[in-house]
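can u pls check wat happens w/ adenosine-5'-diphosphate
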Amino acid sequence: MSIEVKNLFKYYGSQAAVKDISFKVNSGEIVGFLGPNGAGKSTTMKVITGFISASGGEVKVCGLPVSSDSLATRKLIGYLPENNPLYLDMYVKEYLTFVGKIYKVENLKERVAEMIKKVGLEVEQNKKIGQLSKGYRQRVGLAQAIIHDPDVLILDEPTSGLDPNQLVEIRELIKSIGREKTVMLSTHIMQEVEAICDRIVIINKGEIVADDKAADLQLVGSKLTVYAEFEGTVSKSLLKKIPGVGKVEQVKGGWLLESKENIDLRKAVAKFAQENDILAITLRTEEKSLEEVFKNLTK
Ligand code: ADP
């Protein structure tokens, strides 16, 4: 287990930003930590990285408790904080050397060159950080996070503010780094987790509301609604009488029938059609997008 968060609480004054959350991140996983703004993502990540202390509960990184072994756990973690704070007046190489020295990295010159190559900074390596575009600054942020070869990477909103091309490039980079490391990344963008992550933990108002594989989260949503097309005219009031059917909505070409409970309605709809001598031309479960699942869980 690379990260273990158990019954974590964090208060700012009297405000609870994180309330009794527990989750695990296994070695080699890329986990997306998803939630709306203010949900408690950064707070949780800051506790894991040892930047702030917990008000209650326990966090372990690679089996070591962060609260009592902060120095040891920090060596195991690479951290890209929110908004990627960098020294803009420093040159790329100068900055990475500076960070490497803090971590007492051996053969630092070679390691800096290796990092520059790994994150695709070769062309920009002789510039000042302040002269770089946002995408390249993000590469510097990633390079400083992995320079000491940590087992675990904590990335707080690593793609926020990037243009669509930069976004794709940085996601690819995170994926390739993720092949060798355990990664936890926060975002409020659903497509991001779909594109990068093995598993999703959703936090809302300081509490975990979902923890599952992306495909399984969608499956939960997909059972709820059936799309049906019938030959001839069928009334809404009649469809509402089908056992188990809740909301009924007419859409282009057919009907969306929402289940009252989380069950597949196709059998009930087929039976209804047969009994009423109506021909059901199409009957399929509607896949809810992860976006909708997220909205439902965090509204
Ligand atoms: P997220 O990263 O999901 O946007 P945060 O962890 O930054 O959420 O914030 C969670 C809650 O804690 C918010 O209500 C925020 O205003 C509050 N908060 C965060 N940092 C501080 C702080 N240093 N002092 C007081 N309140 C804070």
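Residues 12, 15, 17, 35, 37-43 surround adenosine-5'-diphosphate (CB under 6 Å).
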